[in-house]
Design goal:
392 residues; mainly alpha; 14 helices
Length: 392
Amino acid sequence: MSLARSRALRPFVALLTLASLVHVGILFPRFFTIAGLLPAEGRAVAWAVLLTVVTAVGACVLALVLVARSWDRAGARSLALFLAFLASVWGSLLRFLTVDVTERQADVTLSGEGWPAVLAVGGLLLAVAAFVRFTSLFPVQLSAGLLGPPRRLAFLRRARVLLLRPGMVWGVALALALLWRGAGAAMDLLADPAALASGQGPPLLVPFLLVTGTIVGIIPLAGIALGVRNLASGYRLASPEDRGRVLWLVTGVSAAGWMILGGLGTFLLVILLDLPAPEWIPVVLLALPICSPAVAVMAIAVALFHSGAVDPGLVLRRSTVYGALGALGIILFAGLENALSEWVESRLGFPGVVGSLLAGSVVAGVMIPMRNALGRAASRILPGQGSERTRG
């Protein structure tokens, strides 16, 4: 980037970050309103909302640090944009949260429409684009020649090389945002008011949901995976002093991605398979995606101020292993707990809690041997300073 463009972009990113901070600050009183409406047993929702606010504020602070202190470093501009867009999107969840309290229960829903929803989806896609752009620049600027020959799936390699170009990355993000908006406008245009009044859904509701799931769910996760792949390539090309920072970024983003994919994926499996899980399991599974941006922001903070005291490769391997074991363990426990509780009560006459303890013991007996096997596989596959010294 030329010096003139860099100087012009700097105040723009600073203003965007300050706007995100003001956006979150304006919505902050809504947190107290929601916290006051919720009963005592629903305070976990209030803590989750507070975590989104703190995460958005932390992302803005880190972005301002990059703008003020590290603007000329490789990838700093894209990372600042990523943090600013992430703060604006994650702070918007407070705007889309609705709480209805009745005498018997409190219903919490998350929904958005109109231009706030368009801006949120656009901000999400731009945040992913900024992250992909950052990973192509840090710690070294990647190019087709530095990536080496493709091993398999050559079309994915071609797409990856195309996304190393800044115009392609930002263009794809804007095109997807326009596609989502166009799909929603088409659904509204073709909707029959009389049919809607009678309770029938819009004619293009199913295609719109598929487009929304792809653009808001699958494509951002694919962008995160591409960014992690770029960081892994940059790690091999980086200087020894930069490798620790790269690994912290890989650790945070990978952990956040696993929390989203593992939490929502396991939750959907529990629902689709109709597993009789205890009430706390869905709460834990839904809490993982909520906490994932906070994990990513904390990892970025550690990468920026990394002192080298902790081996990030060890953290990466352990977070990967325990994340996979946690998802498998929850599915196995949800499937066994109800069956064993009924068997213990009907056959042995013991209370149902004994069946829960027995299910936990079975899951632990299965998970402990798997932990060692997964740990060895992670040491061979994932990059890490400690694993490299072992191989050396």
